[in-house]
Automatic annotation (TrEMBL):
Entry keyword Protein biosynthesis: yes
Gene Ontology MF terms: GTP binding; GTPase activity; translation initiation factor activity
Annotated GTP binding sites: 17-24, 81-85, 135-138
Gene Ontology cellular-component terms listed: cytoplasm
Keyword tags: GTP-binding, Initiation factor, Nucleotide-binding, Protein biosynthesis
Gene name for this UniProt entry: infB
Entry annotated with the keyword Transferase: no
The species this protein was found in: Methanocaldococcus bathoardescens
Name of the protein: Probable translation initiation factor IF-2
Amino acid sequence: KDNKNQNLRCPIVCVLGHVDHGKTTLLDKIRKTRVAKREAGGITQHIGASEIPIDVIKRLCGDLLKMLKADLKIPGLLVIDTPGHEAFTSLRKRGGALADIAILVVDINEGFKPQTVEAVNILRQCKTPFVVAANKIDLIPGWNSKEGPFILNFNEKAQHPNALTEFEIRLYENIIKPLNELGFDADLYSRVQDVTKTVCIIPVSAVTGEGVPDLLMMVAGLAQKFLEDRLKLNVEGYAKGTILEVKEEKGLGTTIDAIIYDGIAKRGDYLVVGLPDDVLVTRVKALLKPKPLDEMRDPRDKFKPVNEVTAAAGVKIAAPELDKVIAGCPIRIVPKDKIEEAKEEVMRE
Ligand code: GTP
Ligand code: NA
Ligand code: MG
């Protein structure tokens, strides 16, 4: 294994946006999964998580990666899916707070809606940088949408002039203008000069796959850049995380699904959970990792038992006494001599 890259942290990417603007379908397209189609009422009700390995990103981006001025060194992306329904503000906040970078999904035809504005305000509060995925471009009248880079499909050879005009109108009226009104400079990503000052908009279709390479290239490139700038690229110390869900599992009893956003979790170490007015300390019996590209909340494959998990990652944890804990609680996974330190940390959160 390449020693130099061993400690690079996998960035956390949170996907936010109004209900039905296509967040889950977009992730399904990237993962080749069918999570959205199996959701009750077509509505996401929980936070999801899945890991996209770097080789998959590189393969999907292809030649487009030459647009990046740097080599990708991150081990992949941990993508967090959130619900867009108005009832789930707390889940959006939890997702937004975890993220190193966010993808704000906006239906380019519908434009900004209440939960789009709410998401922007959450990201502003958390100081989380974001890009906009301007989704459903296949529904722009006359647009000839096809799988692959948007940038190669955005010209007079590929599109009728009326479709190009309609695209520019929707891009401006439905996305750039409302973002300006919220205090953000924004433009089509290929027209952006300074990514630290202007929000990049990447047109996509979750149905045809158009723009997916552009989106992954920008998100991977920006995530790496922002992490490097904040010197948050190395994984160090014990694991810090947050509980997504508490679940009964056959043979394991009560387990938690958690996101580890920093550090390394080891089987046999102590799990410290901050409860509303107590702290639980218990021993980690098993760490189980979902397969790459699998959605944690709706996996195709069995989770794999592992001895160690490095941030950022989604993980299922089995331990005694987990029936006492609830979603949203902060956790630490620590060796014995760090239990007191961890207790103080989770009590402060
Ligand atoms: P919530 O999680 O419930 O907020 O919704 P979501 O943002 O995850 O949207 P979802 O993936 O459930 O998609 C909503 C509907 O839009 C589904 O019927 C999708 O098939 C459809 N859809 C999503 N993306 C596209 C797209 O790019 N083009 C078209 N034509 N339809 C899309
Ligand atoms: Na939906
Ligand atoms: Mg969804």
